[in-house]
């Protein structure tokens, strides 16, 4: 009987690009076989199935997802029928320490957290301090280190280096102190490694049956053991950073994010208890700030540098766009450091960044839980309690939307010529088609900040150095909730001659 069921099921999924479903174990073997290549496997399956397919795990488990990359479905789920699609309790469990914070919260709790974070991130003093901090770190840390590496013609991991820069900026802006990870001695980065573990294990938890990873957690074995250690490292780091700030700065300068929460004369009891001590929720909220800032900016920077290094025409176009700014500077020691305010509106720079985020979205897979039965624009019925996975990675690879060259890095697709022939403007692409910053009421609150920071950092690197990758073929996405690189980004840099 089992054999018959097997034959029938295999016949049904005769498309070799779709996962094969087996009795008892469902599609798990196909997923495990393609574990190291899961995003491309999903993209191929979605393309072969007309942009939607059902992913089924063992029948006794809750692994039963509708996987989609259809922009019409995305608009429906994230905007038109927003209240019917929530993050859900299972996601809160999958993300462990982040459970209950803005990335997993729903309803009133989410709205209140979003309002607070929006107020914090739009304070002019914070924005000024962010720009200053970014510029100082690039001028005093990144450029000297790259110059040193250039002089020695040393091979180094660019992803690691940019990750150090972003971690320093994040800790300064969030907690008001500098961990000096970007230093020639390359100190170990336990916090960064712990953040990476959080995201990698979350990806496994998405796919594995809940009972499976819960048992591993209970037994404290495998990846779950690693995660428990990483959570302890993060929790301690954030709790100590908050204590340090509270002890040192009772009046508060307001230039960092934590000051906003701890110096409130009428503190929210969710954040500070009656003795004005930080609550568990405040600590987890600040782990979330670390994740929201460090992870996406580190990933966005690395993929952008990779794309520019492998597409010299785009590198040249950025330098051409920067040349008029450099021309207005008094000549100094030859090194030019760009301010976020100078680069954030440059059209080609933005196009280069968006094109990189299109192909390598920092959140390659989104997850939503259905509140009440509904019909998606694609014609698929979804039931209350079921889960939808949205492959944003596959959305960039839709030929109908982005054209036959959708897999190519081509910033020019973002440009439209001005009618008076005076150059280009950035083409508007609806956010349910280009979902790198999410779409609808939960769109990213840090988009403008990140564009300013990422463009200025990349402008400084590209203007002052030539980047040569060691082997661009080894650069692949790692399986994680955040799209980082699997083997790093091994590179060498050369100072650019001033008259180039
Ligand atoms: C290139 C950089 C960035 C990219 C591509 C990016 C992208 C995203 C995406 C895709 C989401 C949705 C995540 C989800 O719901 O699963 C998101 C949410 C969010 N982002 Fe960003 N982000 C970036 C930088 C930042 C920065 C620097 C901040 C500042 C702290 C920030 C703050 C947030 C917050 C608070 C949310 C939650 C919004 C909500 O659920 O209502 N992001 N971001």
Structure summarized in a few sentences:
With 500 residues, the protein is of the alpha+beta class. Helix content is 51%, strand content 9%. The chain is globular and about 80 Å long.
Residue runs with pLDDT of under 50 for 5 or more positions: none
Distance between the termini: 73 Å
What is the SS-derived class?
alpha+beta
Bound molecules: protoporphyrin IX containing FE
Question: Which tags fit this structure?
Answer:
five-stranded mixed sheet; three-stranded antiparallel sheet; 500 residues; single chain; binds protoporphyrin IX containing FE
Word description of this protein:
Heme binds at residue 444. The chain is of the alpha+beta class and 500 residues long. It has 19 helices and twelve strands. The chain has helices spanning 2-12, 28-33, 38-48, 71-80, 88-94, 107-121, 124-151, 158-175, 190-207, 210-219, 222-248, 257-262, 280-309, 312-327, 340-343, 347-359, 392-395, 399-402, 447-464; strands at residues 52-56, 64-68, 85-86, 156-157, 365-370, 374-375, 381-382, 387-391, 415-417, 424-426, 465-469, 490-495. The longest helix has 30 residues, at 280-309. It binds protoporphyrin IX containing FE. Protoporphyrin IX containing FE (HEM) is lined by residues 102-103, 114, 117, 121, 289, 292-293, 296-297, 300, 357, 362-363, 366, 436-438, 442, 444-446, 449-450, 454.
Strand and helix layout:
Layout: H1 2-12, H2 28-33, H3 38-48, E1 52-56, E2 64-68, H4 71-80, E3 85-86, H5 88-94, H6 107-121, H7 124-151, E4 156-157, H8 158-175, H9 190-207, H10 210-219, H11 222-248, H12 257-262, H13 280-309, H14 312-327, H15 340-343, H16 347-359, E5 365-370, E6 374-375, E7 381-382, E8 387-391, H17 392-395, H18 399-402, E9 415-417, E10 424-426, H19 447-464, E11 465-469, E12 490-495
Parallel strand pairs: 2-8
Antiparallel strand pairs: 1-2, 3-5, 4-12, 5-8, 6-7, 9-10, 11-12
Helix pairs in contact: 7-8, 7-19, 8-13, 9-11, 10-11, 11-13, 13-16, 13-19, 14-16
Protoporphyrin IX containing FE (HEM) binds at residues 102-103, 114, 117, 121, 289, 292-293, 296-297, 300, 357, 362-363, 366, 436-438, 442, 444-446, 449-450, 454.
């Amino acid at each position: 009987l089992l054999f018959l069921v097997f034959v029938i099921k295999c016949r049904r999924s005769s498309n070799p690009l779709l996962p094969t479903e087996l009795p008892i174990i469902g599609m798990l073997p196909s997923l495990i076989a393609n574990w190291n290549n899961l995003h491309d496997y999903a993209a191929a399956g979605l393309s072969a199935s007309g942009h939607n397919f059902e992913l089924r795990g063992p029948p006794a488990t809750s692994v039963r997802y509708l996987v989609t990359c259809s922009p019409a479905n995305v608009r429906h789920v994230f905007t038109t029928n927003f209240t019917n699609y929530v993050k859900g309790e299972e996601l809160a469990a999958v993300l462990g320490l982040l459970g209950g914070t803005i990335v997993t919260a729903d309803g009133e709790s989410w709205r209140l957290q979003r309002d607070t974070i929006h107020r914090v991130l739009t304070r002019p003093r914070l924005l000024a301090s962010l720009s200053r901090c970014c510029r100082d770190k690039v001028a005093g840390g990144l450029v000297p280190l790259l110059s040193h590496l250039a002089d020695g013609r040393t091979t180094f991991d660019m992803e690691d280096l940019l990750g150090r820069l972003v971690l320093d900026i994040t800790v300064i802006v969030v907690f008001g102190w500098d961990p000096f990870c970007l230093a020639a001695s390359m100190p170990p980065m336990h916090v960064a490694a712990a953040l990476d573990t959080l995201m990698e294990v979350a990806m496994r938890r998405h796919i594995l049956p809940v009972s499976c990873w819960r048992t591993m957690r209970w037994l404290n074995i495998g990846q779950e053991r690693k995660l428990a250690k990483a959570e302890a490292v993060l929790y301690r780091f954030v709790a100590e950073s908050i204590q340090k700030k509270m002890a040192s700065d009772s009046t508060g300068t307001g230039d960092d994010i934590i000051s906003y929460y701890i110096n409130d004369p009428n503190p929210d009891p969710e954040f500070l208890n009656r003795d004005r001590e930080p609550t568990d929720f405040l600590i987890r909220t600040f782990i979330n700030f670390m994740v929201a800032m460090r992870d996406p900016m580190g990933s966005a920077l690395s993929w952008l540098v990779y794309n520019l290094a492998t597409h010299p025409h785009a590198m040249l176009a950025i330098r051409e766009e920067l040349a008029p700014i450099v021309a207005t500077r008094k000549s100094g020691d030859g090194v030019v450091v760009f301010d976020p305010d100078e680069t954030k509106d440059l059209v080609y720079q933005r196009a280069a960044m968006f094109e990189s985020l299109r192909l390598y979205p920092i959140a390659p897979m989104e997850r939503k839980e259905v509140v009440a039965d509904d019909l998606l624009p694609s014609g698929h019925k979804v039931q209350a309690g079921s889960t939808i996975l949205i492959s944003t990675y596959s959305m960039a690879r839709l030929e109908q939307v982005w054209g036959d060259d959708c897999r190519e890095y081509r910033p020019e697709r973002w440009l439209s010529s001005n009618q008076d022939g005076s150059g280009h403007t950035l083409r508007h692409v609806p956010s349910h088609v280009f979902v790198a910053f999410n779409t609808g009421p939960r769109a990213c609150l840090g988009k403008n900040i990140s564009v300013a920071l990422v463009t200025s950092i990349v402008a400084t690197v590209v203007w002052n150095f030539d980047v040569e990758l060691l082997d661009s073929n080894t650069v692949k996405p790692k399986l994680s909730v955040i799209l980082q690189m699997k083997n790093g980004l091994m590179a060498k840099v050369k100072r650019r001659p001033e008259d180039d």
